[in-house]
Amino acid sequence: MQAQVEALPSQQLVSLTGLFLITEDGLSVASHVAAALQQKGATTAILNSSTLAEPEKLEQAIAQLRQLHGSVTGIIHLAPLAALELPETLAGWRQITQIHCKSLFQLLHLCAADLQQAGQQQMGCVVAASLLGGYFGRQGQGGSGLPTGGSNTGFLKTLVTEWPGVRAKAIDFDNSLSPVSIAEQIVKELLSSGRLEVGYPQGQRTIFQTVTAKLARENQPAPLTPTRDWVVLVTGGARGITAEIVNDLAQSGLKLVITGRAAEPVAETTDTAGIEDITVLRRVLLQRARTQGLTPTPIQIERQLQGLLRDRAIANNLQQFRQAGAQVEYVAVDVRNAEEFGAAINSIYTRYGRLDAVIHGAGIIEDKLIADKNFASLERVFDTKADSTFLLYRYLRPESLKLLVLFSSVAGRYGNRGQSDYAAANEVMNRFAWHMDCSWSNTRVVAINWGPWDTTGMASEEVKRQFRERGIVPIPLSAGRHFFLEELHYGRKGETEIVAGEGPWEAYEANLNSLKGIGEQGAESKKQIRANAPYLLLPSAPQLQPNGTVTLEHTFSLATDPYLQDHRLDGKPVLPAAGALEWFGEFVQSAWPEWQVSEVCQLRVLRGLVLDTEAGKKVLFKARASSHADSESLQVAAEIVDPERNIPFYRASVILRPQWSEPPTSEILPLSSGEKLQPAVAYDTYLFHGQRFQLITAIDRLNDAGIDAQVMPSRPTAWLNSQPIANWLFDPGLIDVAPQLAIVWARVQRGTTALPARFGSVKRYGQSMPNGQLRIAFRVNHFDDHSLNYDAVFIDENGYVRFHLKDIESTCNTALNRLASHL
Ligand SMILES: NC(=O)c1ccc[n+]([C@@H]2O[C@H](COP(=O)([O-])OP(=O)(O)OC[C@H]3O[C@@H](n4cnc5c(N)ncnc54)[C@H](OP(=O)(O)O)[C@@H]3O)[C@@H](O)[C@H]2O)c1
C-alpha cells in the first residue's frame, strides 16, 4: 500500500437532513462534529461509551432516538479515536472490540433500512475515524490508537457494496491535529466525494494505493530460512489452504504443532473407508442410519458427510506431514479461548524451549448481508480472527520468535458483499500485524491478504463468482503454495501488509466509493442488480429503481418463450399460471440473491397474458420488499403488468427465507379406491396441453375425493429449445400438472372445465430440483358449480414432499369444455 498525498475532492453535499448518530471518542471530537453537523441542518445524538459497551443498551438507545427524531441519515463512528494501551486480558480486549468494532456493526445493522432509504436520495453517509497515526498503522507510524480501529475500513468497504448510494469514509488521524481540526476534516470528508480510505498524517490528506512490489531476491541473501530444528505452530493447519502450505514446509526433524477445532480423527469405519464417490457415500450413510432404525433428514446426512470429509482431510494431511519427516502434534483448541489457546502456546515453550514461527490460518466465514446478519454470527466470525490475534500477541515471546504470518484476506482489504464481519476482522488483523512488526524488533510479522484460492479452502463458488465479476482470478493451488514459499524466503521485515492474487485491486479501490453527484439521478442512477446465478427464463438482470422498486422488462413471444406454443387457449398462446409462478420466483430470486425463494403465495390470475399479435406481448415485472422483513423471512410483493396501461396480469407475494426448507416426509395416504385413467386419454379428451406440458405418466386412482397420479419433471432443454444454463426454481411444467389434474377431475366427476384463478400457496422444499418420477396426491377441498378448490402434494421417490400446493382455486365453466377440441 503506497501512501499518496491527494487534495480533498469537490464538495458534493451542501446541507444535511435527518438524524446523525455519533459515537463518543476519547479525544472529545464528538461534540465539535455534532455542532458542525447541526449547522448544516442535521439533528445529532451522541452515544456514550457505556451505551456502546452493552449491545442491549445500544439497541434500546437507537430505538428511542429514532422514535424521538425520526429516521437515521448518518452515522459518525468516532469511538476508536482514543489513545489507549492494549489491554492485558482477553476480557479487556473484548470490551474494547465491543465499543470500537461491534458497536459499529450494530449501528449499521439496526439502522440498515433508514440508511438504505437515505442512500436512495444520495443523502446517507457513514464516517468512521481511527487514531493509527494517519497511515492506518503503516510505515512504522503506529499512532496512539488500537488496531481495533482497523474494523472501520472492513465494515465500510463492504457496506458500499451492499447499499448503493450510501457514501462512506474511513479516516485515520495522528495526534498532530486538535480535536476541533479533526472534527473539521471529518465534516469536510463527509460532504465530499473521493476514496473511502483516507489518512491525515501531520494534517496532510493522504490516500493509499495498491502497488506491485517485487521481492528483492537478486544478489541478496535470503533473510529467513527455516531449518530442521525449528518449532512451528500452525493454527488451522490440518485443512484448507493452510495445510497446502504446510506441505511445503514439512521436512525431516521439523516440529509442527497443528491446531484445529475438531478432535483428531479416529480411523474411519469399514463401511465408508475407501469410498470416494460422494453419491455412494451419501447412500452408505443413509443405509447405516436406517439399519440403526433412524430416518434421517437429507440435511442430517449432509452434515455427517461434511464431517466425514473434514476428518478425512485432516487425517490425510497429518499423515502427509509425517511422511515428509516432520514431528507432528495435533492439538484441538478453540483459538478464541484464552485458557485453551494460551495453554497450548505455553506448553510449546515448556516442552521445546522455543517457538520459531507461527502461521495463523484459523478462520471462519458465515456470509450474510449487514441487514440480515445476527450479532451472534458476527461475534463467531469476528472473534475467531480478532481475539486469536490478540491472544497470539499476549502469549508469544517476541524475543525468540522469528516469523509470524497472519492469513488475512482481500475481502478485508477491499471489502466484499456479504462479508462485513469477516472483512472487519481481517482488517483488525492487518493493523495488528503492523503494530506487532513495529514493536517486535526480532520478528518479521506479515499479514498475507489472500485472494480466493481456486480448488481448496473456504471460498465458496458464490464468493469466487463475485470476485471473478470484479476481474479477480482465483489462485491456483500451485501458485498459492509458490507465493508463500517465495514470501517466506525473500520477504523482509517491514513488508507487512501484502496482497496475494491477480486482480485489478487499485482500480477497484479507486472506484469503490464513486457516487453520482446530487441531482444526477434519473436513468443513470438506476443500479443494475447482479444476479448471483443464471436463471432459465430471465432475459437480463433486474434493475433497482430510485424509489426502491425492482423492475424487469420482457416481451413474451414464441421466439423468446417457445413453451407457450404448447399452451394455447382457443388457438392463442397464453402464459399459464404455473409459468407466471416460475417467472415470479426467478425474478425475485435474482433480485434478492442472498435469500432463498421458498414460497409463492396468493398468486392471482387477474387477466390472461395472451400472445395475440406477431409482435408479442410487452410486460413489466415489478417487485418491492415488504418493510416487515425479519431475519427469518422476507416478503416481496410482485406483479406482471401491461406497461402502457399499467394493468396487472398476475400478482403474487413471494416469501424468501435465509435457507431452503428441508423436505418433510409425506404423511398423505393414497386414495382407498378409484378409477384408473390412461394419461393419453386425459390429454386427448379433456386437456388442451401440447407436448412440453404432457408430463403425467400415470393416473392411478380418481374418485370424488381427488386423484393419485405420477409425473416426470419437465426438461428445460425441450421447454426453451436451448441448452440449459441452470435449473428451474419451481418447474412450471411440473406445477402445471396440478391444474391439469383439476381439469381432468372436474370433467370426469362434474362434466365441466376448471381453469386456475388463484394459487393460495406453493411451497418448495429441498435445495435441488427433483429429477426422478414424483407422486402427486391431488385432493379436493371444495367444489360447487362455479369453482373447485384443492391441494396437491408432490412426493419424491424417497417419500419426501418436494412441492406443496395449498388452497388452489379454479373457476369452472362448461363452456370451457370446448378448449380440449382445439388441439
Ligand atoms: N481459502 C481462501 O480462498 C482464502 C482466501 C483468503 C483468505 N483465507 C484465509 O486463510 C485461512 C485458511 O482458510 P481456508 O480456506 O483454508 O479455511 P478452511 O478450509 O475453512 O479451514 C479453516 C481452519 O481454521 C480452523 N478454525 C476455524 N475456527 C477455529 C477456531 N475457533 N479455533 C481453532 N481453529 C479454528 C478450522 O478448524 P476445523 O478443521 O476444526 O474446523 C480449519 O482448520 C483463513 O484464515 C482464511 O480467512 C482463505
Brief synopsis:
With 823 residues, this protein is an alpha/beta fold. 33% of the residues lie in helices and 24% in strands. The longest helix has 26 residues, at 298-323.
> CA-to-CA gap between the ends?
70 Å
What proportion of the residues is helical, as a percent range? 25-40%
What's the structural domain tally? 3
Q: Give the helix tally.
A: 21
Low-confidence stretches: 515-532
The beta-strand count equals 31
- Radius of gyration computed on alpha carbons: 31 Å
> What CATH first level of the largest domain would be assigned?
Alpha Beta
Anisotropy-based shape? globular
The overall pLDDT average reads 91
Largest sheet: 14 strands, antiparallel
Structural class: alpha/beta
CATH architecture of the largest domain: 3-Layer(aba) Sandwich
> How would you write the strand order of the largest sheet?
16-17-18-22-23-24-21-28-31-30-29-27-26-25
The CATH homologous superfamily of the largest domain: NAD(P)-binding Rossmann-like Domain
Look up the CATH topology of the largest domain: Rossmann fold
Cofactors, ions, other ligands: NADP nicotinamide-adenine-dinucleotide phosphate
Strand content: 15-25%
Keywords: Transferase
Protein name: SDR family NAD(P)-dependent oxidoreductase
Organism: Oscillatoriales cyanobacterium SpSt-402
Active site: 567, 736
